[in-house]
Amino acid sequence: MATNMDLSRPSLLRFWRFTRRTGIQEAVVVVIAFLVYFFIRGAVVDRAGEALSNGLDLIALERALGFYWEHEWQSWVIDEYWAVRVMNWIYFWGHMPLVIVLAVFLFVWHRSTYGLMRTAFLASGAIGVVIYALYPVAPPRLVPFSGYIDTMAVLDRVGYQAQEAQAFVNPYAAVPSLHFGWSMLLGGAFAWVGRGHAWIVAGGVLWPVLMLFSIVMTANHYIIDAVFGAIVSLAGLAVADAMRRAQPGAVRLLRMALARYLPVLSPG
């Protein structure tokens, strides 16, 4: 006599495969992961004094290393309304909105690259959250009497500091700049899947360069923030690659263990 579990198993298995094939499972996991990331990132916002001190230390470090160029870079665009708007546009729309668009593109047409990038993003985001908590840094726009102009606040209503988004925003999360680091990963993925097409490769190389100028010219990051963002993102990529290499055997063992308690996951 068939049990309820036996009767429901085929339909549950079809539903499981449908959600996996259509990306519903993936979307749920990624959305939850990023909500956790932004919630934790936004929760560490009560250390303004420490963040300001660390920001001043970074300015001193850049001076010592000979590339404290932020004022000069912002001066290139600050008197040109259209140029400032372009930098603002790149800074805002070239981050999470572009991440979502390219994630869907990779998921549909380049699933293997998508998996690697997804894990790299999550791993680098986890590393970034730890650094934000341990080392808060005030961005240039929040350093008093520094001479920087917050172009997003002055010229655009849309921004990550909007009232509606403040629960998920940490103004003292300048280091590392995942704005730059993630744009570097996206550009690399775009160039990789489009190799053989010079214009696609060029676009993948150009995008992180534009993001670098954007994060500096809008006074949201120091140049050295981008360096740390690149290091953290590459570390996330290394973690993702290591997990991918170890994944087949680990997944088989996990499925075998789960199948004992969740028959819907077993083959058949």
How are the SSEs ordered, and which strands pair?
Elements: H1 4-22, H2 24-43, H3 48-65, H4 70-77, H5 81-93, H6 96-109, H7 111-134, H8 151-155, H9 178-193, H10 198-217, H11 223-259
Helix pairs in contact: 2-7, 5-10, 6-7, 7-9, 7-11, 9-10, 9-11
Report how far the terminal alpha carbons are from each other.
19 Å
**Number of H- or I-type helical stretches:** 11
Q: Can you count the beta strands? A: 0
| Overall pLDDT score | 82
- Measured as a percent range, the helix fraction is over 70%
**Beta-strand content estimate:** under 5%
Low-confidence stretches: 1-7, 262-268
Q: What's the order of the H and E elements?
A: HHHHHHHHHHH
Biggest sheet descriptor: none
Whole-number tally of structural domains: 1
Structural class: mainly alpha
Alpha carbon gyration radius: 22 Å
Overall geometry:
globular
Overview of the structural elements:
- The protein has one domain.
- The protein contains 11 helices and no strands.
- It has helices spanning 4-22, 24-43, 48-65, 70-77, 81-93, 96-109, 111-134, 151-155, 178-193, 198-217, 223-259.
- Helix 2 (24-43) packs parallel to helix 7, helix 6 packs antiparallel against helix 7 and helix 9 (178-193) packs antiparallel against helix 10 (198-217).
- The chain is globular.
- Residues 1-7 and 262-268 have low confidence and may be disordered.
List keywords for this structure.
268 residues, single chain, mainly alpha, 72% helix
Provide a concise account of the structure shown.
The protein is mainly alpha-helical.
